[in-house]
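About this split. The held-out portion is used to measure sequence recovery: a designer receives only the structure tokens and must propose an amino acid at every position. Recovery is the fraction of positions where the proposal matches the reference. Here is one held-out target exactly as it appears in the evaluation file.
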């Protein structure tokens, strides 16, 4: 269990405890002490320094105004390498150099994927101007430190994967296997999230919610799981889990996950 706490300005007080408490209530288990990404700061800094020393990364002093005038793509600014040859600004970020060779990988669920980093996202930030490590580098370093072999995450993070593959290559790290699962959406295809007004799941109806989640994920839970204990539901899920039913699916409309402390359900609307 890793808590990714590398962006203090965006963290909400008490949120980590709430997440860990909810996972425990739902019967999730982890194989050791909870780790915190912020504790790996030295390893993150060493990776940045290694890339700088080998000429694979460079300081960038481009302002927000200048960035706003640059080309944009689906991943945001397509940075054209403006500061590759040097920068005189004192307020700097660190960017990693990219090239335009195809970065390709085979996703377990979504099939072949590819991206040309230089033309589709450009050189990207690995250390921000506020001296906070960027997510792309932090997750790559921490996955390596924890010897992660398989990454299962939402398809909304698919576009980040080629950048992470690039960093793994530059840092001589092994590449995990990837499976990008569909995101849960409302009736107008918005990902369920706080920003779109989605309610929290119930913390006092965990068994019922687990069965509903299995249904949403196409696992066809047995009828006798209605009213079953949480332990029995987990045993059934472990024995019958079939991730392949999610192949080539990018989103799942959700309309029947119990809301927190109510008898209602997440509405199939914004």
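Reference sequence for scoring:
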């Amino acid at each position: 269990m890793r808590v990714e706490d590398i962006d203090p300005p965006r963290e909400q007080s008490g949120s980590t405890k709430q997440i860990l408490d909810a996972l425990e209530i739902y019967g999730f288990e982890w194989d050791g002490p909870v780790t915190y990404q912020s504790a790996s700061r030295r390893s993150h800094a060493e990776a940045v320094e290694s890339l700088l020393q080998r000429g694979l990364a460079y300081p960038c002093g481009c302002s927000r105004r200048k960035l706003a005038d640059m080309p944009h793509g689906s991943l945001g600014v397509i940075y054209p390498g403006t500061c590759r040859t040097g920068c005189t600004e004192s307020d700097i970020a660190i960017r990693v150099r990219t090239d335009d060779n195809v970065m390709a990988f085979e996703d377990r669920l979504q099939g072949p994927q590819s991206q040309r980093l230089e033309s589709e996202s450009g050189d990207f930030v690995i250390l921000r101007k506020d001296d906070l490590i960027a997510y792309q580098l932090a997750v790559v370093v921490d996955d390596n430190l924890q010897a992660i072999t398989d990454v299962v995450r939402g398809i909304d993070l698919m576009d980040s994967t080629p950048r992470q593959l690039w960093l793994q290559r530059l840092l001589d790290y092994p590449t995990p296997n990837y499976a990008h699962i569909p995101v849960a959406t409302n009736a107008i295809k918005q990902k369920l999230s706080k920003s779109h007004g989605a309610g929290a799941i119930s913390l006092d109806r965990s068994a019922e919610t687990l069965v509903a989640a299995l249904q949403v994920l196409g696992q066809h839970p047995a009828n006798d799981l209605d009213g079953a204990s949480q332990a029995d539901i987990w045993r059934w899920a472990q024995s019958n889990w079939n991730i392949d039913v999610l192949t080539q699916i990018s989103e799942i409309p959700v309309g029947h996950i119990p809301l927190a402390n109510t008898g209602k359900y997440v509405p199939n609307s914004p």
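Annotator remark: Residues 89 and 239 are 58 Å apart (CA to CA).
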